[in-house]
Fold this sequence. Notes:
This protein is an alpha+beta fold. It has one domain (17-269). The protein contains 10 helices and 10 strands. Helix 6 (87-100) crosses helix 7.
Amino acid sequence: MMYRSVLVLCPAMMTSLAACVGLQEGEDDDVGVLEQGVLVENALTSNALTSNALTSNALTSNALTSNALTSNALTSNALTSNALRDPLARELLKYVVSCALPRGAHLDVNIDGVVHGFDGELGLHKNWGDMGGSCDNACKTWVSACVLSRINHLGIATPISMRGNKSELSSDWAERMAYPRREGAYYGNIFANPPIYYACLSPEQNSIERVCGPSLDDCALTVVGTCRDACDIPQGDGSYPNCRDHVRNWCGSFPSGTIAYSSSVTIFLK
Length: 270
């Protein structure tokens, strides 16, 4: 089971429990001033993320991220062009392009005489599509969070509201009213070796059926716990910033070595 609940004893054992609870009471789901969000569809299958040549070869070798996200760069590199013969690799690339490049951007990739088209949508790292562009660490983690949030256990396209601490993810009142149910937050680095896939649950949720299916046991992502215990306090739009690979211990602090991901996205459903 991939729901990882970590209990670490507080070093200052003399500190009263009341003082520790006070740290947690400072969290308020209505605190924050930023307003982010975007309506997107998601139908990326877990297999497309975890079991294809693009993930095992072209992504982790930096063959994709060290070059521009353009038609020429994809087809002139042997690793990426060979990887894209796999339909699952093309499915994953569809979401990478959609997350990274803005609406209106389009790539055509010729694989063995067949042209496959990929459209931009969110524009989380527009410069990757420029001549001579590449994907730096901020690009990798933002695109990763976006891609991870768009996994669907059944591969069924479902509208979601994606929100996070980035201008491209701004939302309005109408969207928040239409998509009020917070599901959880997603973060990591799909381009790392090995890849890093994390999620946390909104405090009012006990599952992520859209992404993991009926059980968390076989989820493609590591669900670290609740976002209240893994992230900073929610922003004004309800999204969780700075989510981590471990949850807080019983007195409200994080274990040594915990890594925070500033590029986390939170998903809301109808």
